[in-house]
Amino acid sequence: MKKLTTALKIFGILLIIIVILAATLPFAFKKQIVGAVKTGINDQITAKLEFSDYSLSLFRSFPNFSLGLKKLTLIGTGDFAKDTLISTQELQLTIDLISVIKGKQYVVTKVSLDEPSIMLRVLKNGKANWDITKPSPPAATTAAESNAKFRLTVNKFEINGGKVVYDDQSMGMKTAMTGLDLFMKADINGDVYEMQTEVSTESLDFAYGGVPYLHKVNAGVKTDITADMKAFKFSFKDAAISLNALDLGLDGWFSMPEDDINMDLKFDAGKSEFKNFLSLLPAVYAKDFDKVKTAGSLTFNGYAKGVYNDNMLPAFGINLLVNNAMFQYPGLPATVKNIGIDLNLANKNGVPDNTLINLRKLHLEAGSNVVDASMQVATPVSDPAIKAKLKAAIKLAEVKQFYPLPDDAQLSGLLNADIQLDGKMSSIDKKQYEAFKAAGDISLSLLNYKSKDLPQGLAINTLKLIFSPSFVEMPVCDLRLGRSDMKATGRLDNALGWALRDEVLKGNFESSSRLMDLNEFMAEDAAPSSSDTLSTLTVMRLPANIDFVAKTAITKLIYDNIQMSNVSGGLRIADEKISLNNLQMNMLGGSMVMNGTYDSKPQSPNVAFNLDIKRFDIPLTARTFNTVKKLAPVASYCAGKASTTMNFTASLDDKMMPILESLNGSGMIKGEQLVVMDFIPMNKLSEALKIDKFKKLDIGTAMMDVTITKGRVVVKPFTFMTDNIKSTIGGWNDLDQQISYTSVMEIPRAMFGTQANSALEGMIKKAGTQGVKLNIGETIIVSAKILGTFTNPTITTDLKNSANAALTEVKQQVEQEVKKKVQEEIVKVKADAGAEAAKIIADAEKKAAELNAAAKAAGDKLVAEADKEGKNLVAKASDPLSKLAAKEAAKQALKQAQSKSDKLQKEADQKGKAIIAAARAEAARLK
To answer: What is the domain extent for residue 904?
Structure first.
């Protein structure tokens, strides 16, 4: 008993010691651990790691330390300076206790992220925002690794409630996940990791080539992965994947030893029901899916085996077969029945041109409505051969009998489609349209739709598309959305080349409207309020492979509180830009003509516009546009009209609003019937001079030369008369409302009353102390400096010998400010120009190489064909004489083909050199 008591005492003492150590050790090591983590990570990456707070504990992950980093962010640099790669409420790191005590290298064994937002982006040039490790010379690798203050030996990784976006512009692929939970546990044995992985996400979206394949899908993966990190090979066994109600099994492996991706993967839905496949349709899955009555079988499987790189695909096959399927919503009278799908995608050897897409059958019947379709596409790279049919006749009023529309929804109208395609793209390329069958049309008539989400209602009287081999024509489009109406005609050229080869789709449209109320297109919670046009939009990226030209005429156009009339003009969408051509409109009590471009190519889109504005109402303009309030606060205190010829450039933010700090421009502004009243700087000037007339300036007409550089507005000196006072004013103001203006006033002596004379005497004495002798005559020359801010200005006044001297002083001050800003801009432009010049030359060299490669390929093809034809000619010869003649003809044909090949190569080489020379000249001009 005594031994037991002693043992319990010892155990109790040890327990107390452990608790004390667990409570005190974090305080002892907190600063050095946190400092080592932050410094160690920032030393190894180009991105910037920050966090607001931290905690360190031994209790949470005893016997190891648990480090919590609160509100952590990882922000990119360079091309990704505006990207927040990771932001999370808390990052938890489990750090090996012994490694901390030794103090040489901290070992992190577990990482946990709480509600992270993760943005992964790849630019068109293949550059990824997660490539943030700093490069090290090979010889320094060992030393760098040994000197690193911490290393990752992670065997557990968790994400709770995450949001992940993967945007790969180089492949046209975008994936978004919300509500992501991930748990990964690894048993590490040298270079081999045995990982248990569970992933689930509440909502998965996946789009490729602009086509959404998955939308708001509830997805999950549960699998064991063997990862050979040395060979960079990952193997799956009995992986279970769920997409809504569809369960898939996945087996196989993939590896990335270098740039190529090797794989051998198989998936199979096993014995499944049609209902499981139906769950992937968001519109179906979202509405009482568990109560939907279904029948029918489903076969869904596939494989991918081989190498994937820029020039090759793995061999693959995907099969989808649906037989005798149907579904019916509870409480609805009609079924969607006789559903049949037979789809096969196959490529037996990995050569992209040997891919075959074969939709043998798509059939369904919904009430009295029938849809039939089939499609086959072969040799999609070299010469797409397409054979397709679509036939559908749908009475839209019957939709509510087999699909549950919202209770308040009204739908009627007729949709008819009858299209047939059969032929090869080469026929269209050669303009042999008779060899390509493309006929049929799609039409909508008497469509009416109205619901809670679209209370204004959509009515399409007629909309028709007519198909031919060379174009798709829209002879009529007559629609109304609420109060807005539109009539349009148009035509699309090269639709098949665009769909099958990603070639340029050309279009030409004309539209007209009596009334276009854009407020009807916006949700109530998104409606703008007294702000700039486009304020509710997000960045609009334009495709590179369209070239659309449009003309429009709108009698009345309404956006927010802006009413425009007699809107007309043209626009062109091409090269990822929108170009406006003489867009004219009447608005704000005057008129405007606009020319310019919106360029969506750079990371931050930009605009460049030329404006010709006549007689805009100044106070109405200030109330309408926040940009005017920011750049010219005086406008809010003005009455009168403004006309201007102005050009400007600016970058746009993610709401399509101008980034004012990037705004540059210049132009002339003419003010008419100008009256400035209760403007704080003028009120302060009035108080300083004791002359009330400056509180209300009746200017009349004034011409102002204005320059905007990086958001700073510089007004060159301009002169105006008001109440027999001649005034000249010039200076600048910034976006933060800082101001620096100088005004020279020629004031009649008679205007100085008792109080004003007192102020005048004070200025005379001040000038005398400065050694300035003044002869006060009938006109007093007063100079005033206005500094500070628009809302809290400071005024200093001074007397001058002559108006000319004072005016020269004002001009010099303004010119110095302009030169300073211009010099700053020159330095920046030179730096940008250097990078742009290098890119221009690199692009030109790439284009030249492509021309040479294409010419060589064409030449080799000519020679090969001539050689083949010659051999065939010789083989067909029946006697020695004709055989000899055939050989000579074949020799001459081969010689001619070789000559043509050499000519093609020479022309391509000359053209390439000309392109490079032009690029170098342009680069030199930029520099």
So the answer is: 829-926
Cis peptide, bond prior to residue 137, ω within 30 of zero: no
**% of the chain residues with pLDDT over 90:** 24
Q: State the pTM of this model.
A: 0.64
Q: What local confidence, expressed as pLDDT, does residue 28 receive? A: 40
In terms of pLDDT, which residue wins out, 373 or 758?
Answer: 373
d(CA 606, CA 901) in angstroms, rounded, equals: 44
Count of beta carbons in the 10 Å neighbourhood of residue 49: 20
Question: Among residues 655, 656, 580, 568, which one has the least CA distance to residue 611?
Answer: 580
Structural domain contains residue 918: yes
How many whole angstroms separate alpha carbon 847 and alpha carbon 849?
A: 5
C-alpha span between 176 and 203 (Å, rounded): 8
pLDDT on residue 459: 94
Residue 515 lies in a domain: no
Q: Classify residue 732: in a domain, yes or no.
A: no
CB atoms < 10 A from the CB of 153, how many? 12
How many other C-beta atoms are found inside a 10 Å radius of the C-beta of residue 447?
18
Q: Which two tokens stand for residue 440?
A: 């049929």
Q: Establish how many alpha carbons lie within 13 A of residue 692's alpha carbon, considering only the half-sphere containing its beta carbon.
A: 3
Q: Write down the H helix ranges in 45-158.
A: 97-102, 141-147
Going along 138-210, which residue ranges are E strands? 150-168, 173-189, 192-208
pLDDT tens-place string over residues 336-351: 999 999 999 999 998 8
Write the DSSP assignment of 455-496 as a string of letters. Answer: TT-EEEEEEEEEE-SSEEEEEEEEEEETTEEEEEEEEEESHH
Local structure of residue 38 (DSSP, 8 states):
H
pLDDT tens digit sequence for 848-878: 777 777 777 777 777 777 777 777 766 766 6
Number of domains into which the chain is organized: 1
Classify residue 822: in a domain, yes or no.
no
